[in-house]
Amino acid sequence: MKEKIPDRLISLDAFRGITMILLVSTGFGLAELKDFPYWNELAMQFTHAQWEGLHFWDLVQPFFMFIVGVAMPFSLSKRLRQGQSDREIFWHVVQRSLILIFLGVVIIKGVQLMKGTPSLTNVLTHIGITYFLTFLILRKPLKVQIGVSLAILLIYDLAFRFVPLPYEAGPWQQAQNLGSHIDMLLGFEFNEGGWVTINALSTAAHTMWGAICGWILLSDRNEKRKLIFLVAAGVIVLFAGFILSPVTPIIKRIATSTFVLVSGGWCLLTLAFLYWLVDMKGYKSWTFFVNIVGMNSIFIYMFDILLNGWLLDFLSIYTEPLLGGLNVGSIIITINLALLVKWYICYWMYKHKLFIKV
After folding, report:
1. Which ranges does the record mark as transmembrane (predicted)?
2. What is the pLDDT of residues 278-305, one digit of tens each?
3. Helix (H/G/I), strand (E/B), else coil: 52
4. Nearest CA-CA partner of 119 in 193, 15, 45
5. Which residues does residue 52 pair with via DSSP β-bridges, in sequence order?
């Protein structure tokens, strides 16, 4: 495939920024409205589905993993133009994967590690795994990349169905499935919410599909053909997931094949919309606000995981007296004030040219 190196894919930067704002927003506090009749449906969209089903909030992590994949062909092409050898690029990928896994396991989940029950369910850990798996096929023909991603989903689905387990329940039961059983055998932390480590394998498809889109966007196809590919692929994958859902339920916490398909479809369609809006139509001015956060994505994610609780407690010292004590309104305002503080930290880092990369 011929390559046409664009100056910058601004829509990708915008997608990354939007995703990071969502990740550190604490759902804008909207989940607090769950007990209000007129707001209940909206509030539920900003929480994870308890088990089966799909909420908007279930798409945020797939967005993050998909974006990592889209950026990979651009990064690889840049390194090759700079004259880096295959060996240098490979070791850069290994190093980056290990750092991401380290941040997820040791820094974010350090308490569980010290207890002797490590956890590999953090998004950074999963990105470290899926990033490396995607790199292994990154320079293969696109048909091979598509085939590998679909094969992973098929094998994952069959494994959940047919690997014998000491449970009488079916393959998709919470805490009694292949994923939770493997975590138990490996001595990993028992997750009461039903999250499992091996969903990093099926969700590798998100990163692989992102990389495929990256190659398409990097190619010499005209913009209209690129957009048609993104929309068509998104619709096909999305409907495939819904059509298969009576056979394999949509469950994010174990990342069933149908969940990966449906969420992957939304990733593709969101990228298509932003590509059309920003790169094709030229509506770029608004992207600065979100790009500020995307430029320091790992930093602000770590800040949110480690310090957001402290920040909310600090701000509530001032907001609760002003807003009449602890109530839904004060909680929502405090959460969004915290988001503004995090945005300003990113803005300050941007102004001082501080960019923390992994």
Report:
1. 12-31, 59-77, 89-108, 120-138, 145-163, 194-218, 227-248, 254-276, 288-311, 331-350
2. 999 999 999 999 999 999 999 999 999 8
3. strand
4. 193
5. 251
